[in-house]
Write a structure and sequence with these properties.
Shape of chain B: globular
Distance between the termini of chain A: 25 Å
Helix content of chain A: over 70%
Number of helices of chain B: 24
Structural class of chain A: mainly alpha
Low-confidence stretches of chain B: 261-287, 312-342, 412-441, 631-647
Largest sheet of chain B: 6 strands, mixed
Strand order of the largest sheet of chain B: 6-7-8-3-9-10
Mean pLDDT of chain B: 80
Strand content of chain A: under 5%
Mean pLDDT of chain A: 86
Radius of gyration of chain B: 27 Å
Largest sheet of chain A: 2 strands, antiparallel
Order of helices and strands of chain A: HHEEHHHHHEEH
CATH architecture of the largest domain in chain B: 3-Layer(aba) Sandwich
Helix content of chain B: 25-40%
Oligomer: heterodimer
Shape of chain A: extended
Radius of gyration of chain A: 26 Å
Structural class of chain B: alpha/beta
Distance between the termini of chain B: 48 Å
Strand content of chain B: 15-25%
Number of helices of chain A: 8
Chain lengths: ~290, ~650
C-alpha cells in the first residue's frame, strides 16, 4: 500500500471513508470498522492503538448516548422518562453513528500513515502546481522557524535572560520580542531564498511539476481490481440490494445471494490494503528464505 | 574564447556617495577556474551579482558585461537561468523545498522540463555528487556541508556553462569546506564548467585556481596566475597577503629579505625589480621562482632553501641538507607537558562530566574534564560531532550533565571586572552594582555560534540597553557606549543588527554579552565566516578582555587562529579532552591536527607553529651565512629553533 501510486491510495481511502459515512448499514459498518481496526493495528502497532482508543471510546459512548436523548424519532418506545421518550430506532442509530465515527477515525489514522505529505503535495501539485510548491516550502520553513526560535531562546538564556521565567507580563513581553525578531529574521533570510529561486529560473513561464511517482502495471492492475469491487458496491446500493432506513422504523434489506455478494465485495475492498501488505510481506519472506 | 568580459564596470548603490565597483576590467575564459579574493565588503558579492541579471542589485551601472560575446542584458532570462549557475553563501537559506529530490528538481521544473528529462538529469547529478543515499531525506536532516553540496547539485542539474559561487564555504567546517571545493575541482576538470568563486579559504582554493582576481575597494588590485598575484601583492604590501597560504607567506617574506639585503647588482633583486616594479598595472602573468602554494610545494622550496644555507657556497645549491651532527631534542610530549599557567588560579571547570540529549541516546560527553584559568584564552579544538558545542552548553549550565560536576569559582576576584577597570565609570560603580541584579554577573556567559540569535531589538543601541534593568538611565547609556567603544562598534549603534557585516554583527553580539560582565566568556566558533582582517580585530578584542581579567574558552575549527592567539589548547575527541597543553607544545606535538606552517616544516625545522616562526628561522640562517661567509654549523643554529635533515 505504501508504494502504491498516491492517486490510487488517495481514491481508495476517499471511497471507503465516503461509503462508511454515507451508508450507515450495520453490516457494512461492522466490516469497515473491523477492517480499519485491523489495518490500524498492522500499521501503527498495538501500542499506539491504546492512545487512539482513549479518545475513541468516550467519543463513541457520547455519540451513542446523546443521540437517543435528543432524537425522538422512531416508533418503538423503549423507556419513557418524564416527557422523554427513548426509542429503539434512535438508540440503534446512535450506536451506528458511534461505529461510523470510530471507523472513520481509524481509517484516517491509516490514511496519515500511507499518504505522507509529499504524496499529498504531489497529488495536488498535479492540479495546481503553485500550491504544491507552497506546501513544500511551508513544510521546509516551519521546522526551520521553530528551530531558530529555540536557538534564540537558548542564546538569551546563555546570556542570562531567561525568557520562560518571570511574571506573566514579562513572559508575554519577551515572547513578543522573540516574535518580532523572528519576523525580521525571516524577511532577512527570505531575501536569500528569493534570490536562490529566481536564480534557478522561478517565475519563468510554463513551470512543470516533477514527482517521484510512476503509474506502473501493478498499480493499474490493483486499481482495476479495487475499482471493480467499488462499482459492485455502488451498484448494490443503487439497486437497493442492500439498504437501511432507521426511521420511522428500522427496515433492513432482506437476506439474499446478491446482497451477500455485495457484502463480500465490500469486505474484500476493506481488507484490500491488509491483504496486499500481508501478501507482499509473505512474498518478501519467502524470497529471502530462498537466498 | 571569453565567456564573460567585463569592461570598465562601475556601480554605485542608490544614495551612496562611493562607488561599490569602479572600472572593473575582467575576462573569464571558458573552462577557467577563477578565484576572486579580497576583504569583506570590498565588492566581491556586488561584482559576482552583476554576472546574472536577476541578481544584479539596483543602482547606477556603467560599463559593459558581455556573456558569450553578447551583452548580458540581452541574453534572455530562460537562457541565463540554465547557463549561469549561482551558489550563495548560506547553505540554509538557499534551499527552497522540503525534500532533497524536490530541491534537485526545482530548477528544471522552473524551466518546464518534462518528467522524463528531470528524472534523467536528477539521476545523473545525484550519482555525480553521491547524493543517492540521502535522496529521499528531508532537507532538515542534512548537515551544513550536505546542504551546500545539495545547493551545488541543484544548480548543476541545469547544466550551466559557468558556476558563480559567492563564499560558498564560509558557513562550513574545514572538512566539509575542503570536500565542497574538491567537488568544484572535479566539476571543473570533468565537465569543463567555468568556475568563478569568491572565497576566504585561500589555502585550499588557490592551488585549484587558474586565475586569481584581487579586489580592494571595488577596484581590481591585481589579476593573473597565483604566483604572479602573490608576488605583486607582496610588492604593494597588500593586507590581503595575510590570508594567503603559509607556504606563500614564508616564500614572499624571504623574497623580500633577499631583495632588501641584496645590492642592486644581485641577480635576484634585479630580476625582481624588472619584473614587478615597472610592469603593467594589472596583468602580471609571469613570475620568476614560482611561489609555492601547497604544503608540498612549500616543503620542496624550504628544503632547497635550507640546503642553500647549509652547503658550501661552491657546492650544488640543490643538494639535500647534510645530516647534522646533533639532532635537537624532541619537543616534550604534550600529554605530560606541564602547563605554563599552572600557577594561575582556576576559575571554572568540569570534572568527569557525562551528558546525553536523550535517555536512550548516545553519550555526547564521556567523562569530560577541563579547567579554565584566570585571564587566559583557552581553545578547544576538534572535528564535527565531538561534542564541542555540547561542552559549552554544559559549562554554561544550559544542559544538565547526568554525572560529574561543573563548577565555577564564586569569588573570582571582582576587582578585575570590566566595570571596575573602567575609569570613566569608577565613581558610578557603587550605584550601578546595587541596581543590577546579581544573577549572571561576575559569572559565565556564552556567545552562541549564530550571533543573529542574540539580538532582539531594532537597533544595536536598543539591543545593548535591554541588558539593563533600567535602560533609560544615564549610567546604562554610558555603559553601553563604553562597551561599544571597546568593541569598535560605536559608529554602528543606530544600525539594525542584521544590516551590518558578519564581523560587526559578531562584535555587537559580544558587546551585549559583555554587558553581563562575565568573568568567564564562552565562545562558540567565533571565527566562522570571518575574513583575515576581522579575525585579527577579534583577536585584538579578546586580548583586551584578557587584560581586564576575563577568562575565555572558545571552541573552534580554526587551527591557525588558535595557534596564533591562544594561551592553551585542547583537543576534544569522542566526548573527552585527549590532549591539553600550552599552545606551542600542543601544535608541535600533533602531526596532522596542526598548523600549515608546522606541517610545512615538519622534519626540516623543529618547533614551528606559525609562518612567522619559519621566517624568523630562515632569516637568522641567512644572516649568519652572510656574516660568516661560509656554512653555519649546527651548533650555531641552536637558537629558538633548530634544523635537522629530512630522513
Amino acid at each position: 500500500m505504501r508504494n502504491l501510486h498516491p492517486a490510487i491510495s488517495f481514491s481508495y481511502f476517499a471511497f471507503v471513508i465516503l461509503i462508511t459515512v454515507v451508508f450507515m448499514h450495520p453490516v457494512t459498518l461492522c466490516i469497515s470498522l473491523i477492517s480499519a481496526l485491523l489495518y490500524a493495528i498492522y500499521l501503527n502497532g498495538i501500542k499506539s492503538l491504546r492512545l487512539t482508543l482513549l479518545v475513541l471510546v468516550p467519543m463513541m459512548l457520547l455519540a451513542a448516548i446523546i443521540n437517543p436523548l435528543f432524537n425522538h424519532l422512531g416508533n418503538t418506545v423503549l423507556i419513557t422518562v418524564g416527557s422523554l421518550q427513548i426509542t429503539l430506532e434512535s438508540t440503534l442509530y446512535g450506536l451506528s453513528t458511534a461505529g461510523m465515527l470510530a471507523a472513520v477515525i481509524l481509517w484516517f489514522s491509516c490514511y496519515n500513515k500511507i499518504m505522507t505529505s509529499d504524496k499529498f503535495t504531489y497529488l495536488f501539485g498535479k492540479i495546481i502546481p503553485s500550491v504544491s510548491l507552497i506546501i513544500s516550502m511551508t513544510l521546509r520553513f516551519i521546522p526551520r522557524y521553530l528551530s531558530q526560535m529555540k536557538k534564540i531562546t537558548y542564546a538569551q538564556q546563555a546570556i542570562g535572560r531567561d525568557l520562560n521565567s518571570g511574571h506573566l507580563i514579562d513572559r508575554i513581553r519577551s515572547g513578543g520580542d522573540i516574535l518580532s525578531i523572528m519576523v525580521t529574521w525571516a524577511l532577512e533570510n527570505g531575501v536569500d531564498t528569493a534570490d536562490s529561486m529566481r536564480s534557478r529560473g522561478y517565475g519563468l513561464k510554463g513551470r512543470s511539476s516533477y514527482s517521484l511517482y510512476k503509474l506502473d502495471s501493478r498499480d493499474k492492475l490493483l486499481a482495476a481490481f479495487s475499482l471493480y469491487l467499488a462499482i459492485m458496491v455502488i451498484v448494490g446500493i443503487a439497486l437497493r440490494l442492500i439498504s437501511i432506513s432507521y426511521f420511522p422504523w428500522i427496515t433492513l434489506n432482506p437476506f439474499s445471494i446478491p446482497a451477500l455478494l455485495i457484502y463480500l465485495a465490500f469486505l474484500l475492498l476493506c481488507l484490500f490494503p491488509l491483504l496486499l501488505d500481508g501478501f507482499e510481506e509473505l512474498k518478501w519472506r519467502s524470497s529471502r528464505s530462498r537466498i | 574564447m571569453a565567456l564573460f568580459t567585463l569592461k570598465d564596470l562601475s556601480f554605485t548603490y542608490p544614495q551612496q556617495p562611493k562607488q561599490a565597483l569602479s572600472a572593473v576590467y575582467m575576462v573569464v575564459e571558458k573552462g577557467e577556474f577563477v578565484v576572486l579574493c579580497g576583504r569583506s565588503g570590498c565588492g566581491k558579492s556586488t561584482l559576482l551579482r552583476h554576472l546574472k541579471t536577476v541578481l544584479t542589485p539596483h543602482g547606477k551601472h556603467q560599463g559593459e558585461i558581455l556573456f558569450d560575446n553578447r551583452p548580458l542584458a540581452q541574453v534572455d532570462l530562460r537562457e541565463q537561468s540554465s547557463r549561469i549557475g549561482f551558489v550563495l553563501q548560506s547553505p540554509e537559506n538557499q534551499i527552497v523545498t522540503d525534500k532533497v529530490w524536490h530541491e534537485l528538481a526545482f530548477g528544471l521544473e522552473s524551466l518546464g522540463c518534462d518528467t522524463a528529462t528531470i528524472r534523467l538529469r536528477v539521476a545523473e547529478m545525484a550519482s555525480f555528487f553521491g547524493i543517492q543515499e540521502w535522496y529521499h531525506k528531508d532537507v532538515n536532516e542534512l548537515s551544513g556541508g550536505q546542504k551546500q553540496l545539495l545547493n551545488l547539485a541543484a544548480v548543476m542539474v541545469m547544466q550551466p556553462d559557468v558556476l558563480v559561487l559567492d563564499e560558498p564555504t564560509a558557513q562550513l567546517d574545514p572538512i566539509a569546506a575542503a570536500e565542497f571545493l574538491n567537488q568544484l575541482k572535479k566539476i571543473n576538470d570533468e565537465t569543463g564548467t567555468t568556475i568563478i568563486i569568491a572565497e576566504q579559504r585561500l589555502e585550499v582554493v588557490l592551488p585549484l585556481a587558474d586565475k586569481v582576481v584581487v579586489l580592494a575597494d571595488g577596484k581590481v588590485l591585481a589579476q593573473g596566475d597565483v604566483s604572479a598575484i602573490s608576488t605583486r601583492l607582496n610588492v604593494t604590501k597588500s593586507p590581503m597577503l595575510k590570508a594567503f597560504p603559509a607556504a606563500a607567506r614564508v616564500f614572499l617574506a624571504m623574497e623580500d629579505q633577499t631583495d632588501d639585503a641584496c645590492t642592486a647588482g644581485s641577480p635576484k633583486g634585479e630580476h625582481f625589480n624588472r619584473e614587478y616594479r615597472g610592469d603593467a598595472r594589472f596583468n602580471c602573468d609571469s613570475s620568476i621562482a614560482t611561489c609555492p602554494i601547497t604544503i608540498r610545494e612549500g616543503r620542496d622550496w624550504l628544503m632547497r632553501e635550507l640546503a642553500a644555507t647549509q652547503s658550501q657556497p661552491s657546492s650544488d645549491q640543490l643538494a639535500q641538507p647534510q645530516m647534522l651532527s646533533t639532532l635537537p631534542p624532541a619537543p616534550p610530549s604534550p600529554v605530560h607537558a606541564e602547563n605554563p599557567s599552572d600557577a594561575s588560579t582556576v576559575v571554572a571547570g568540569a570534572k568527569e562530566v557525562w551528558f546525553r540529549y536523550e535517555r536512550k541516546g548516545a553519550d555526547i560527553l564521556r567523562g569530560l574534564s577541563l579547567e579554565i584559568h584566570q585571564s587566559e584564552l583557552f581553545c578547544l579544538l576538534g572535528g564535527n560531532g565531538t561534542g564541542k558545542s555540547t561542552t559549552l552548553g554544559v559549562l554554561a549550565g544550559l544542559l544538565k550533565p547526568y554525572r560529574g560536576k561543573v563548577w565555577l569559582e564564586k569569588q573570582a576576584s571582582s576587582a578585575n571586572t570590566l566595570a571596575a577597570t573602567d575609569d570613566l565609570l569608577q565613581n558610578k560603580l557603587a550605584a550601578f552594582t546595587s541596581a543590577e541584579s546579581t544573577a549572571a554577573r561576575g559569572g559565565l556567559c556564552l556567545l552562541p555560534q549564530d550571533s543573529q540569535t542574540i539580538f532582539t531589538e531594532k537597533t544595536i543601541r536598543d539591543d545593548l540597553l535591554t541588558m539593563f534593568t533600567n535602560p533609560k538611565s544615564d549610567i546604562s547609556l554610558a555603559r553601553a557606549d563604553s562597551i561599544a567603544e571597546l568593541l569598535e562598534i560605536d559608529t554602528l549603534l543606530d544600525r539594525h543588527p542584521f544590516d551590518v557585516s558578519v564581523g560587526e554583527q559578531q562584535r555587537a553580539a559580544l558587546a551585549k554579552v559583555l554587558l553581563r560582565e562575565p568573568q568567564i566568556l564562552l565562545l562558540d566558533e567565533p571565527t566562522k565566516g570571518l575574513d583575515a582582517a576581522f579575525k585579527e580585530q577579534l583577536a585584538a578584542i579578546l586580548e583586551k578582555l584578557k587584560a581586564r581579567g576575563v577568562s575565555i574558552l572558545m571552541v573552534s575549527h580554526d587551527i591557525e587562529f588558535c595557534a596564533a592567539y591562544a594561551d592553551r589548547c585542547a583537543m576534544l575527541f569522542d566526548g573527552d579532552v585527549v590532549s591539553q597543553s600550552a599552545t606551542r607544545q600542543f601544535f608541535v606535538g600533533n602531526s596532522f591536527y596542526t598548523t600549515a606552517a608546522n606541517r610545512l616544516s615538519r622534519g626540516l625545522v623543529e618547533n614551528v607553529v606559525t609562518a612567522e616562526d619559519i621566517i624568523k628561522h630562515l632569516s637568522t640562517l641567512n644572516e649568519r651565512q652572510s656574516k660568516s661567509g661560509f656554512p653555519s654549523s649546527s651548533n650555531k643554529l641552536s637558537g629558538t629553533s633548530s634544523v635537522r635533515a629530512r630522513s
